[in-house]
Protein backbone atom coordinates (compact mmCIF):
# COMPACT_ATOMS: atom_id res chain seq x y z
CA UNK A 1 0.00 0.00 0.00
CA UNK A 2 3.03 2.28 -0.04
CA UNK A 3 2.36 3.05 -3.69
CA UNK A 4 -1.16 4.25 -2.89
CA UNK A 5 0.02 6.78 -0.33
CA UNK A 6 -2.10 9.54 -1.87
CA UNK A 7 -5.36 7.84 -0.89
CA UNK A 8 -6.53 5.80 2.03
CA UNK A 9 -7.64 2.24 1.48
CA UNK A 10 -11.25 3.35 1.93
CA UNK A 11 -10.93 5.73 -1.01
CA UNK A 12 -9.46 3.03 -3.23
CA UNK A 13 -12.21 0.59 -2.28
CA UNK A 14 -14.81 3.28 -2.99
CA UNK A 15 -13.36 3.82 -6.47
CA UNK A 16 -13.28 0.09 -7.18
CA UNK A 17 -16.88 -0.37 -6.08
CA UNK A 18 -17.96 2.63 -8.17
CA UNK A 19 -16.21 1.21 -11.25
CA UNK A 20 -17.72 -2.25 -10.78
CA UNK A 21 -21.24 -0.88 -10.28
CA UNK A 22 -21.01 1.40 -13.32
CA UNK A 23 -19.62 -1.36 -15.53
CA UNK A 24 -22.33 -3.72 -14.28
CA UNK A 25 -25.00 -1.20 -15.21
CA UNK A 26 -23.38 -0.72 -18.61
CA UNK A 27 -23.28 -4.48 -19.21
CA UNK A 28 -26.93 -4.76 -18.19
CA UNK A 29 -27.85 -1.95 -20.58
CA UNK A 30 -25.94 -3.71 -23.35
CA UNK A 31 -27.93 -6.88 -22.78
CA UNK A 32 -31.27 -5.06 -22.51
CA UNK A 33 -30.90 -2.79 -25.53
CA UNK A 34 -28.41 -4.81 -27.62
CA UNK A 35 -25.91 -1.97 -27.76
CA UNK A 36 -23.24 -2.20 -30.42
CA UNK A 37 -19.59 -2.68 -29.54
CA UNK A 38 -18.83 0.95 -30.42
CA UNK A 39 -21.48 2.28 -28.04
CA UNK A 40 -20.24 -0.14 -25.36
CA UNK A 41 -16.67 1.15 -25.79
CA UNK A 42 -17.92 4.70 -25.55
CA UNK A 43 -19.76 3.77 -22.36
CA UNK A 44 -16.56 2.26 -20.94
CA UNK A 45 -14.75 5.50 -21.71
CA UNK A 46 -17.45 7.46 -19.89
CA UNK A 47 -17.15 5.12 -16.89
CA UNK A 48 -13.38 5.66 -16.93
CA UNK A 49 -13.88 9.44 -16.93
CA UNK A 50 -16.40 9.26 -14.07
CA UNK A 51 -14.10 7.11 -11.94
CA UNK A 52 -11.17 9.41 -12.77
CA UNK A 53 -13.17 12.47 -11.74
CA UNK A 54 -14.19 10.73 -8.52
CA UNK A 55 -10.54 9.88 -7.84
CA UNK A 56 -9.52 13.51 -8.33
CA UNK A 57 -12.37 14.63 -6.07
CA UNK A 58 -11.40 12.15 -3.34
CA UNK A 59 -7.77 13.19 -3.65
CA UNK A 60 -8.60 16.88 -3.25
CA UNK A 61 -11.08 16.44 -0.40
Could you walk me through the main structural features you see in this protein, from its secondary elements to its overall organization?
By secondary structure, this protein is mainly α. Helix content is 80%, strand content 0%. The chain is built from two helices and no strands. The protein starts with 8 loop residues before the first helix and ends with a helix.
Index terms:
single chain, 61 residues, mainly alpha, 2 helices
- List the total number of helices: 2
- How would you sum up the global shape? elongated
Poorly predicted segments: none
SSE sequence, one letter per element: HH
Task: Reconstruct the topology from this structure.
Elements: H1 9-33, H2 37-60
Short description:
The protein has 61 residues and is mostly helical. It is 80% helix and 0% strand.
